[in-house]
Structures are given as C-alpha cells and as structure tokens.
Amino acid sequence: MKTVLITAGEDIIVRNILQTDFLPELKRMLPDAKFVIAVDPKKLETLEPKFKDEHVSLVGFVRGATPRYESLIMTLARSGIKSKTNLWSKMRSYERDHSTFFATYFKRAHTALLGDWDGYKRFLRQRILRLTSDPSAKKLFDAVKPDVLITLSLTNFDFDIPITREARKRAVPILGMARSWDNFSSHGLLRMIPDQLYIQNVFLKDMAAQYQALTERDVPMTIVGLPHYDAYAGACTKTISRERFCELYGLDPNKKIILYGAMGDFLFPEEPGMADVLEHVIEEGKIGTPAQALYRVHPKFQSALERIEGMKHVKAMKPDSYVTNDAASGLSNEELYLAALCHADVVVSGASTVAIDATVVGKRVICVAFDGTTPEHEVLYWHSVKRFYDSYTHFEALMDTGVILRADTPEMLAEEVNECFAHPTPDGAARKRALDTFVEPLGGAGKRLAEAVAKDITALN
C-alpha cells in the first residue's frame, strides 16, 4: 500500500482541486493507496468532515522558523526572474515602506543583472535544495513516511516548499503543480522542481520557459486544465433562479445586475471607492437601463462593507472564505459566486481572475483602470490600479486577447456598461483566444489530473 502525501496549505487549493472530482477519482483509481493531506492546523476542524474517511486522513503542518541564511537565499529567489510583475512587486514593497531604498535598489540591480540568466536560476535552486531541513517537515515525513508527494501549490513558499525540499532530500518522488495562471511570472523563481509538473494551460507552459528556465527537457509537463472550472460547464442552467438569488441579496430581479468582483485592497488600495462610483453612475442616470450593482468583496479583504451599508443601488456579497457554506442559503460560497456570475448582466473588476471566470461562463467583462473616487494625482503609480495594465505580465496577456473592455474613467465605465447591456455576448473570436490561452482544456480537468497522477504513481512500482 502506497502512502501519498498531498499538500493543501491554502483555502483556494481546497476549492480549486480537492473539492472537485480529483480526489474521488484518484481514490477510485488507486484503491489500495493511503492519502494524507497536510493542511493548516487551524483548518482541520473545517476540512476533516469534508475529506476524512477510511482512505484519507488530515494532518496539520506549520513550518518552523526561517534561518537567516535561508531568508537571504529566498530573497534572491524572489527577485530571480525579470518580469514586469516582479518589478511591480519590488516597487510596491518600497512605496509601502516594507523595503528600504537600498534594499530595493539592490534587488532591482540583482534582477537586471541575473534575472534572465538560466544558469543562475539553476544555481539558486541547487542552493535552496542544500538548505537545512525544516524541523516541522522532518517530523511530518518521519510520521507519515510517504512514498510519493503531490504538491498542489509550488509557489506556496512557507508551506509546500519546506515539504517539497524534504521530499527531495529523502528521494521521495514529487508530483507538483502551480496554483494559478500568474504563478510563473509573478512569484519569483520557482524554488523546487518536481519530477512531474502538471500545468493548467499553454500560458503557464510559455511562462515556465520564458521566466523559470523550464522546458519539457527539464521536467515532463502535462497540461490538464483547472479542475475548479469543471463546475462552470453548464453552471448557468443548474444554478438557483434569478428570483431566489436576488432575494438573498436584496436585489430587484427585473433590473439589470452589474456584478463587481473585488480583487482586494491589498492589490488595489483604492478599490472600496468603486462602490461609490457604481452608486453615483446609477443614481445620476448614466446607466440607460434600470440597474443595480452587487459588490462581491474578496474573501480576504472586506474593507468595502462599511461604505456599502445604506447605499441605494449597491448591495454587498460577503463570502467569508473559499470553502465554507452560506448560512442563509445553505449553498457554498462557491455555488453563490457561480450564481452571481450567471445572473450578472455585466461583470466589472480590477485586474482580477474574476475576468477569466466571467469569460468562461460567457459574460462580458469590463476592467477598471482608475482608482475609484480618488483623484489621479493623489495615487502613486505603483499603488494605482493602472499599473496592472502595463506592469502585470499575466494580465497584460489576457487584455491582449481583446475579450476584456477597459474603463479609464467613471464616465467610460458607464458607457461601456450601457454597451454591454445592449450587446451582452462577448466577441466569439476574442473569447476563444482567451479560453485557448488561459483555460483549455475546459471540462473534465479533475478526472484528467487524477488520471495523470494515478498513471505516474503506478509507474513508480
């Protein structure tokens, strides 16, 4: 009987992978295997009822303190790729006083000199592998004694990477995947390379070659799609009725719905002001059709809620996590999010993955390039939402497909909302370009990932 250790250090991994067909299919394909899922200990109480059974157990994991030398090596790795997003990340840290001028200058010089050198990236990875084992990872491996590791988020540097490094030191085979479409261009150098890499789309494969010094000559790659999107197939024919959905959020089912999907004020500091913008453009009659807005706050950043209270035209949608259920409806937060996408007449956001989610279900999308109600001259460039359209590598690629509209002012936003109400179907060729690049293969990804993993584990015999 093989023991398979699986990492799930973030709620979004649970949502995107474990709450899909992947785990049930993997258990079916490997009936004699024992699965151990490593999670944040704070999540054990929530996750054990969902996954624990005779084949699956859960264990808490928190990495130990990071030694100073390891912190230095990881700092070099963070600035070890020469992407626009990596530059933005450095400048954001500087402008938020998280990094000094001299540290920022050093990191920028380091990236400029070495960020395009594949040999240097391989050298850094060798140094990372030789770092001292994390004591918590050692205890985990001593207790579980896994025959294989499945790491579901190779860019979770405080969770997956200490575990993956320990697996490599013990010669435990590593099957790994990136968490999201931005991972290879946004999170610095990939610290550890698995024996088999599962990726979601062709974009990640291109980014691996361009920024990570990784091609199929370095590691076998299998494009499987994103299991999370399996639920999107036919979702709008299965979701709750528009009347029921509107009842849950105090909306009028006879009015158009503008769904604002927040990316979170950590990334978009002035984003809460978008609620005021939506309230004003509707109140001032700039939307030609009776309309209302539903502002879906990010599960981790809910600072917009206070200002929405008492608004006439804007209501709030308040998911508290990716994996819990909503008490009022009995539905999961993910089911409600899908219902919101399905019943929206247009979707508005910053530079968020919400744009792809909405494109998958066939909605038109507008991304804002202005900072809410804050005057332009009061917002530093590296804090402004505008930077996402020329300094956010993966999102620039999405905008280049032509499927997303961009609004540079509140007035332009109102005009584009009116345009989308009049013509609610996205351009077919542009949508296909976006899906081909960032989503396909769409449908059946959970089973496809399970098949690939089961095949690779079986081959270890």
TrEMBL record:
It comes from the Bacteria. InterPro entries: TagF_C. This is UDP-N-acetylglucosamine 2-epimerase domain-containing protein. It comes from Candidatus Yonathbacteria bacterium RIFOXYD1_FULL_52_36.
